[in-house]
């Protein structure tokens, strides 16, 4: 898609940074699609997803993504065949009677899928109700990376192919494309945002530095986050190396990590709180000052006021998953999930393009770590 929300931008080398995010301190601020398009609220208290880093924006494009008051994400169905195809994909992977080990294994790499959703006012307007994978983070740093050697599917018209190739001719060689990101600057207490033009500007000789921006918090490179991200991407790669039934085009990996650093003495207490009680939950939309956040941490009473029954179950299964991964004290909070399945097709061969992209992405991440 080609609809960037253009804020008054500063060109900083290859970076396209939204200046208002960082110049208005001391509290973190970000403009959202909603602010740009005017106050177009969604149905039933839903609002445009405030921390969306790429893709179609609600109130700006024809379709977009909303945040439900219960903390889930609502992705509006694209016009056919894309929307129904994505819906079918989620339904297949999350089918109650699904007993295909390959698909069951895939679930861990996707946002949880709850159902389709529509508001009583417009029952024909369908949404996919999904887990917000950024939800447990206070200052979520988010990056959307499109994976594969081709952004168009095998059934795309010649025109569509050419359009996609024009957008990023290096896709075939690099195998991935940064679609957007937001990175928390610890010192300034604000987010830097990078739109699709930033990623498209990255060439072979700048891709490493371009990608490393996502892991730089203004003071230091988050090597711990890179290491954890590599482990998660490797796990996704293993899934791809063992399956030949699905091929993915123009699909993304969503990287998320906690931008807010914890003081060393708070690390262990917070983590044990998270694991034992499962009550820590943060709403990305609620601005809280750092000091409030820290004092709440200390009192151990950070608890969502908007927690619904459904969120609770999502949260608990999330913590169970974390516990199963046997996190060490040093392991930072990181998510890497596959998203955007409008162009997933049945196949009989491995997804060579996606595998190529993942391997190259891993190689670049490793180089950032080694340098
Ligand atoms: N489950 C999710 N949790 C949190 N954020 C999400 C989730 N799904 C999507 N997002 C946010 O929305 C953005 C766009 O999502 P997605 O790629 O699914 O939509 P799109 O590109 O508009 O879709 P399409 O390619 O079908 O038109 C992502 O970059 C991410 O910031
Ligand atoms: Mg997308």
Automatic annotation (TrEMBL):
<dbReference type="Pfam" id="PF03770">
    <property type="entry name" value="IPK"/>
</dbReference>
<protein>
    <recommendedName>
        <fullName>Kinase</fullName>
        <ecNumber>2.7.-.-</ecNumber>
    </recommendedName>
</protein>
<comment type="similarity">
    <text>Belongs to the inositol phosphokinase (IPK) family.</text>
</comment>
<dbReference type="GO" id="GO:0008440">
    <property type="term" value="F:inositol-1,4,5-trisphosphate 3-kinase activity"/>
</dbReference>
<dbReference type="GO" id="GO:0005737">
    <property type="term" value="C:cytoplasm"/>
</dbReference>
<keyword id="KW-0808">Transferase</keyword>
<feature type="region of interest" description="Disordered">
    <location>
        <begin position="19"/>
        <end position="41"/>
    </location>
</feature>
<keyword id="KW-0067">ATP-binding</keyword>
<dbReference type="GO" id="GO:0032958">
    <property type="term" value="P:inositol phosphate biosynthetic process"/>
</dbReference>
<dbReference type="InterPro" id="IPR038286">
    <property type="entry name" value="IPK_sf"/>
</dbReference>
<dbReference type="InterPro" id="IPR005522">
    <property type="entry name" value="IPK"/>
</dbReference>
<keyword id="KW-0418">Kinase</keyword>
<dbReference type="GO" id="GO:0005634">
    <property type="term" value="C:nucleus"/>
</dbReference>
<keyword id="KW-0547">Nucleotide-binding</keyword>
<dbReference type="GO" id="GO:0005524">
    <property type="term" value="F:ATP binding"/>
</dbReference>
<dbReference type="GO" id="GO:0051765">
    <property type="term" value="F:inositol tetrakisphosphate kinase activity"/>
</dbReference>
């Amino acid at each position: 898609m080609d609809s960037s929300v253009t804020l008054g931008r500063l060109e900083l080398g290859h970076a396209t940074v939204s200046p208002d995010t960082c110049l208005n301190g001391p509290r973190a601020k970000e403009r959202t699609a909603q602010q740009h398009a005017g106050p177009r609220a969604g149905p039933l208290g839903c609002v445009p997803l405030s921390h969306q880093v790429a893709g179609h924006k609600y109130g700006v494009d024809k379709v977009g993504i909303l945040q439900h008051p219960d903390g889930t994400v609502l992705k509006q169905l694209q016009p056919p065949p894309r929307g129904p195809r994505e819906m079918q994909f989620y339904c297949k992977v999350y089918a109650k009677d699904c007993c295909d080990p390959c698909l069951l294994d895939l679930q861990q790499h996707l946002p949880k899928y709850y159902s389709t959703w529509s508001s009583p006012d417009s029952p024909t307007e369908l949404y996919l109700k999904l887990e917000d994978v950024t939800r447990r983070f206070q200052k979520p740093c988010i990056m959307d990376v499109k994976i594969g050697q081709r952004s168009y599917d095998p059934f795309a018209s010649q025109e569509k192919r050419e359009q996609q190739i024009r957008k990023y001719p290096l896709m075939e060689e690099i195998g991935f494309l940064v679609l957007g990101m937001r990175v928390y600057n610890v010192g300034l207490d604000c987010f830097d945002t990078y739109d699709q033009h930033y990623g498209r500007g990255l060439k072979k000789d700048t891709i490493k530095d371009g990608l490393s921006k996502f892991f730089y918090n203004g003071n230091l490179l988050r090597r711990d986050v890179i290491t954890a991200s590599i482990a998660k991407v490797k796990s996704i790669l293993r899934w791809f190396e063992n399956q030949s039934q699905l091929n993915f085009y123009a699909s993304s990996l969503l990287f998320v990590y906690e931008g807010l650093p914890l003081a060393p003495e708070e690390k262990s207490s917070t983590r044990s709180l998270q694991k034992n009680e499962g009550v820590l939950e943060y709403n990305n939309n609620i601005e809280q000052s750092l000091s409030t956040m820290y004092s709440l941490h200390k009192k151990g009473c950070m608890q969502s006021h908007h927690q619904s029954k459904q969120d609770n179950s999502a949260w608990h299964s999330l913590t169970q998953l974390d516990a199963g991964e046997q996190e060490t004290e040093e392991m930072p909070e990181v998510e890497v999930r596959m998203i955007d399945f409008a162009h997933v097709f049945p196949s009989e061969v491995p997804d060579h393009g996606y595998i190529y992209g993942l391997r190259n992405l891993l190689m670049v991440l490793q180089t950032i770590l080694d340098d």
